[in-house]
Amino acid sequence: MEEMRRKMEERVHLIRQQMEEAARKAGRAPEEITLLAASKTQSAEIVALSAALPIDLFGENRVQELVDKFDAGAYGGKQVDMIGHLQKNKVKYTVGRARLIHSVDSLELGQVISKEAGKKGLCQDILLEVNIGREESKSGVFPEELPRLLENICQLPHIRVRGLMAIPPISAKEGQNRPYFSALRQLFVDIKSKRYDNVHMDCLSMGMTHDYVDAILEGATLVRIGTGIYGPRIYKEETP
Ligand SMILES: *Cc1c(COP(=O)(O)O)cnc(C)c1O
After folding, report:
1. Measured in angstroms, how far is the CA atom of residue 121 from the centroid of ligand 1?
2. Per-position DSSP letters for the chain, written without gaps between them
3. 38: CA distance to ligand 1 center in Å?
């Protein structure tokens, strides 16, 4: 475990340095950019070790993992976001635990979240997920569907839209995702300038281990890094 802790510490240190460098290059303040540790598949023990490192918060893909680690106190007082696809029947476990839900891509999901947040006396912050690469297999709305979703979702009483999230196509070459990041940022800026009610555009969630530097250069305010912190993921067989 000490070996793992030391490795993670080194990796986070390096990531912070590169984040800072990218921020400066883009003429931005490094403090503006949040480092989210994507801790999917990592055990509560590893997550608890990483909580002491200079990461800002955690992100999980699966509700069950989020619940287990949250309830075990693995996040060490740091907050956790839901970054993976969210099923409507799991919303009740997510609202009240997740700081921010990054993956809202339908009005129906928004309605379920708002209702659950209302029941718990909360206002749930969300991001709208955009399928910026127009990939069949990905969740998220197409850019042209975004205005309509936003206009409807911002009327829900217990939700606040805080920004946008995207996962661009897996790229073979470095720098290949920059046009996608730039397109997402343009959407973000357009929405911000329109001043919808209940919409406070302050989070642009984009960039992962292989492309976070480019994402920051294109305006990301939050990067989601998994393997870059924890090393390669080991997926266990689903238990029946
Ligand atoms: C796993 C995951 C990440 C982190 O991916 P890495 O390539 O390991 O950095 C970021 N965002 C989402 C939505 C993820 O599922």
Report:
1. 31
2. -HHHHHHHHHHHHHHHHHHHHHHHHTT--GGG-EEEEE-TT--HHHHHHHTTSS--EEEESSHHHHHHHHHTTTTTT--EEE-S---GGGHHHHTTT-SEEEEE--HHHHHHHHHHHHHTT--EEEEEEE-TT--TT--SB-GGGHHHHHHHHTTSTTEEEEEEEE-PPP-SSTTTTHHHHHHHHHHHHHHHHH--TTEEEEEEE---TTTHHHHHHTT-SEEEESHHHH-S--PPPPP-
3. 6
